[in-house]
Amino acid sequence: MGRASALASLAWNLGTASGPPLGLFVVTHLTAPGSWAVLAAGAAAAFGVAAAAHRVGRGG
Length: 60
Hints:
Order of helices and strands: HH
Helix content: over 70%
Number of helices: 2
Distance between the termini: 19 Å
Structural class: mainly alpha
Low-confidence stretches: none
Mean pLDDT: 87
Shape: flat
């Protein structure tokens, strides 16, 4: 439980520190389709990490 809590805290801190600058960069430097593509790639990466963590948590 301690490791999971620490990992969740680390992920939260990384996201709140890096998310706004990355979002501003994407919005100011890419077209609308490019911004959507980056958003979709980020969502796919988050889903992949969550799915992998779920498999590990279930012993699979």
